[in-house]
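[recover] target loaded
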């Protein structure tokens, strides 16, 4: 069995026996690490990922605590997905605005500091803990278009069914299937050497 297949299979098997905790605190505790992994993969920045997960958890508690436990999973992933998209948009706008301002001079003629975007390369912790197969898989997943990446992570890594994924992504079930199919095809091509 290949390294990438083993990672996927381990994630899927861990999903099978996972029941939704009865309390919201238990649910959030069970989602914390997986949500962070997803956010960090999308954002490429540890601090932004922590902020996104924390904000998603707070919004779930504030607005949806009275919903049945079975609805928490797709609601949470939908909130997190929207928060990640918001952070990506803000980063892009900030980059454009600071780009216009960066490298210039203020009214007194002093040079303004140029803003440099955060290094989105792999951090040292990932290098220490990651194996080559995981790093290759993560890189291939990061290359996916945003909607394909969301469908892949929610369906394969989180184990949501098609309906829950569609609800979390805010699209139709057919759209989820199409995005997932395209994502899987791309990953098969990118990770051919691991077969």
């Amino acid at each position: 069995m290949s390294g990438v297949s083993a990672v996927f299979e381990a994630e899927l098997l861990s999903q099978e026996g996972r029941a939704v905790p009865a309390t919201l605190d238990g649910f959030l505790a069970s989602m914390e690490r997986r949500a962070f992994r997803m956010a960090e993969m999308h954002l490429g920045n540890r601090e932004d990922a922590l902020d996104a997960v924390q904000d998603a958890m707070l919004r779930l508690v504030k607005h949806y605590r009275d919903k049945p436990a079975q609805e928490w999973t797709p609601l949470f992933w939908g909130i997190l997905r929207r928060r990640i998209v918001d952070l990506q948009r803000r980063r892009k706008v900030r980059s454009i605005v600071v780009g216009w301002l960066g490298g210039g001079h203020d009214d007194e003629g002093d040079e303004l500091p140029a803003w440099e975007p955060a290094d989105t390369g792999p951090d040292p912790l990932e290098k220490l803990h990651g194996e080559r197969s995981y790093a290759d898989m993560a890189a291939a997943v990061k290359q996916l278009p945003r909607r394909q990446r969301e469908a892949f992570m929610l369906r394969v890594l989180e184990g949501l069914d098609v309906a829950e994924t569609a609800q979390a992504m805010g699209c139709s079930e057919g759209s989820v299937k199409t995005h997932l199919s395209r994502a899987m095809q791309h990953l098969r091509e990118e990770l051919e050497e691991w077969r």
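[recover] notes: The chain has two domains: 1-121, 122-190.
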